[in-house]
Specification:
With 534 residues, this protein is an alpha/beta fold. The protein has 15 helices and 20 strands.
Length: 534
């Protein structure tokens, strides 16, 4: 992979932290202006984008309309969406898809027309896809385009440690000037100085014990932005995907919602269908309702999982529309053309995040956030299926446009101080990390999961505060590592999730609490601002 920089002090015009659809899109849109550096925690393809199966929601058919897509999104968002942000996103949806097609993404066609499918919450067929591996098609195409762009430099196997802001340098304003980053191959912290920084780090589902996300989804951007002085919002809304493959070796392999869009039904172990008993939309109800229903069924009947069945559809149809799911399930001895698929919910998407405006600007000058790390107002209390990749693309363009409007070729990135690790030593207590790691994710699953109560949240917060103190002491005394950085970030995000949840005295969208089962009279964002730094 291209990596032309070999120094502990880097300079760049724009630093993009994250290599998913959001990060690579903004890099490509800015490459004509100057030097762009993209930071990737693992291989450049290893992120949630690559694993996204379903597709991208967009207004592409004559029978569809912007108003219809906006209305569906507002309904799914349970009254908490920012209608201005929703309309902005949907109005730019066709343009975003055309941009991907121009880059070379091969979307599925039938009879020379793009095949559009339908997913939960959508009133129309508007999901453009590439079979059942849309994320892979988007990711590989964007990676290829980035590798052919001489102004884009990729740093693989690097993890950001923290933002470098003017306040941290002792100045009165608060602008982001770059970041400290850990070179995982050389085990050293390096400095990247940049005129603009874009956070595209994805979500925080790794804070939960069971997740459909790749290992890199550890909330890094949310935690770093918080420490840099950015406000966050609506982090209590964690989307649990209703249907992840339940198998000890599957590591929560996602079973796309598109199966339900094409007629798959949910069954109890005895073969009874149950969704129509809970919601008139049945399997096409929004994800929060489906996930909560499955969770209820599992607890009510004392079962380990429920079953998703599409075997009543034509065998060739299943194989042609869902080749990835078909082949993956076959590896575990499941033939989905004949067998029902055992499924359970798993943490899937972070609907809240770092507060941004329509230009993707955070509270800190020069720092932008796009994709799952950000809270744009699009998703509200519940993300509607396939709006997430669309958000990545649309807000990557808005960030790029805003950065370009400020571009001054005569400006240079500032000189920044090197990382100081003179007061730390190599760790001799790695067991502390592994223990705290497991405890954090277990307590979030048990106390801050699909169904919550005030008592569970209070218990979780007490334990998080103790963990936070232990991790801070560890961070202060030992050299940083990938696990330590991720754990430090996850404990911050866990606390923010809990504090947002404690603000919400109602059940709305993805936040369901037994203490407040009804909707409040007024829909209000939960919002947290960092304490003022001394």
């Amino acid at each position: 992979m291209k990596n032309t920089i070999n120094t502990t002090q880097h300079t760049t015009d724009v630093l993009v932290i994250g290599s998913g659809a959001a990060g690579l899109s903004v890099a490509l849109r800015l490459a004509h202006l100057g030097k762009i550096t993209v930071l990737s925690k693992a291989e450049v393809t290893e992120g949630s984008t690559f694993y996204a199966q379903g597709g991208i929601a967009a207004v592409l058919d004559e029978s569809d309309s912007v108003d219809s897509h906006v209305e569906d999104t507002l309904i799914a968002g349970a009254g908490l969406c920012d209608e201005k942000a929703v309309r902005y996103t949907v109005e730019h949806s066709r343009e975003a898809i055309e941009w991907l097609i121009e880059r070379g993404v091969m979307f599925s066609k039938e009879a020379e027309q793009y095949h559009l499918t339908r997913e939960g919450g959508h009133s129309k067929r508007r999901i453009i896809h590439s079979d059942d591996a849309t994320g892979k098609a988007v990711s590989t195409t964007l990676v290829s385009a980035v590798l052919n762009e001489p102004n884009i430099h990729i740093l693989e196997h690097y993890i950001a440690v923290d933002m470098i802001t003017s306040q941290k340098l002792g100045k009165t304003d608060n602008r982001c000037h770059g970041a400290y980053v850990l070179n995982l191959k050389k085990d050293r912290v390096e400095t990247i100085s940049a005129r603009f920084v874009v956070l595209a780090t994805g979500g925080a589902s790794k804070v939960y014990l069971y997740t459909s996300n790749p290992d890199v989804a550890s909330g890094d951007g949310i935690a770093m932005a918080w420490r840099a002085g950015c406000s966050v919002a609506n982090l209590e809304f964690n989307q649990f995907h209703p249907t992840c493959l339940y198998h000890p070796q599957a590591r929560s392999f996602l079973i796309s919602e598109a199966l339900r869009g094409e007629g798959a039904v949910l069954l109890r172990p005895n073969g009874e269908r149950f969704m129509p008993e809970y919601d008139e939309r049945a399997e096409l109800a929004p994800r929060d309702i489906v996930a909560r229903t499955i969770d209820h069924e599992i607890k009510k009947h004392g079962i380990e999982c429920v079953y998703l069945d599409i075997s009543h559809k034509d065998e060739d149809f299943i194989k042609s529309h869902f080749p990835t799911i078909y082949s993956r399930c076959l590896e575990f001895g499941l033939d989905i053309t004949k067998d029902a698929i055992p499924v359970v919910p798993a943490a899937h998407y972070t609907c809240g995040g770092v507060r941004v405006d329509l230009n993707s600007r955070t509270d800190v000058d020069g720092l932008y956030a796009i994709g799952e790390v950000a809270c744009t107002g699009l998703h509200g209390a519940n993300r509607m299926a396939s709006n997430s990749l669309l958000e990545c693309l649309v807000f990557a363009q808005s960030a790029a446009n805003d950065i370009e409007s400020q571009w001054d070729p005569s400006q240079s990135p500032p000189e920044l101080p090197p990382w100081d690790e003179s007061q730390v030593t190599d760790s001799d207590e790695e067991v502390v990390l592994s223990h705290n790691w497991h405890e954090l994710r277990q307590l979030m699953w048990d106390y801050v999961g699909i169904v919550r109560t005030d008592k569970r949240l209070q218990r979780a917060l007490r334990r998080i505060e103790l963990l936070k103190q232990e991790i801070h002491e560890y961070y202060s005394n030992f050299k940083v590592s990938n696990d330590l950085i991720e754990l430090r970030n996850l404990v911050v995000v866990a606390e923010l999730i809990i504090r947002c949840a404690m603000q919400r005295k109602e059940s709305r969208g993805l936040h369901y609490t037994l203490d407040y089962p009804e909707l409040a009279d007024k829909a209000v964002d939960s919002s947290l601002k960092p304490p003022v730094q001394d």
